[in-house]
Amino acid sequence: CVCVRVRVCVLARIFIHVFVLDQLIENGMADFLDYNIYLTRGWDQNLAKNIMLHEDDSHDVITGLQQKTHFGRPQWGTIFENMAAAHTGEDIGVFFCGPKVLSGALHQECNRCTDIQRGTRFYYNKENF
Length: 129
Known about the structure:
- By secondary structure, this protein is α/β, with parallel strands linked by helices.
- 39% of the residues lie in helices and 17% in strands.
- The protein has helices at residues 11-26, 45-53, 76-86, 100-113, and strands at residues 2-5, 33-34, 38-39, 70-71, 91-96, 121-126.
- Helix 3 (76-86) packs parallel to helix 4 (100-113).
- The protein is globular and about 45 Å long.
- It starts with a strand and ends with a strand.
- Mean pLDDT is 78; it is low at 1-12.
């Protein structure tokens, strides 16, 4: 089972997830979770310069993780299509917490990229706090 956690949250919550990701990696479970972090706002010219200076580093300058932070809005269609292609014949869990509008868009992508004939199924899950 491939688990994808799509999360819309404030920067403070990201650091909690970074701790969890570090624990998975340290315990030999790095392949359990496929993740991408997007920073859609809240960054300025100084942060952009710092990121460019550390572009070739092995770890992300913001999170400290090996996965680099993406800037700007995610291209959900492309992301879901790539996941479906990479995990043909598998179940893919999508977990979401955030605004209703985005929830609907992600749910539609799950339905669109589910391919019963190939056995690739996206399961959409949402949380409300």
